[in-house]
Specification:
The chain is α+β, with helices and mostly antiparallel strands. It has a single domain, classed as 3-Layer(aba) Sandwich (Chemotaxis protein chec), CATH 3.40.1550.10. It has helices at 2-26, 69-79, 90-110, and strands at 31-37, 43-46, 49-55, 61-67, 126-128, 132-135, 141-149, 152-160. A six-stranded antiparallel beta sheet has the order 1-7-8-4-3-5. Strands 2-6 form a two-stranded antiparallel sheet. The chain starts with a helix and ends in a 16-residue tail after the last strand.
Amino acid sequence: MERKNSEIHRIIEEVGTCTDMYLAAETSIKTSEISYQFSGVQKLQLSHLTSIIAVGGHLKVMFAFSFDQTLAEQLMRDYTAELNLDEDELELVTGETVAEMINIILGNVLADFMYDHEAIPLTPPIVIYDAKNIYRDKNALFVSGELKTSFGNMQIHCIGPKELFDQELNYVEAIS
């Protein structure tokens, strides 16, 4: 378990770094600070918009990218600057934007953590549109990172093992 925790710590740092580089290269958003919390995380606070991917293979965890509303909206504006969108499309396009971002970043980062050249399977991203808290069960692992920007903050959470949770990060069984 210690080896896996160490690997999870390295992965979340790589995800944070890759996210920072992605924002700088693809958007007008610049990160002012990145911080990590590797132990003692008892509660995850999911923001306005959260995109989630389950990771299989030897990792068996879930990643959640959770965005302040203002940051998610700026991402969408940057991605769609050359498109003419109707007002009623904005929420859907914002969700698609954050889903695409987590997919690109995790796909790139996890390629460096394969064993025996075996690809690490990822589920398609899902998006949840409401804030909520998730309290850590004694059998769960929570590791988090946070990127601060002038448009708002983004949290990156690694949650495991994935068997404890459904697609929207609800526990699948009562907490024991």
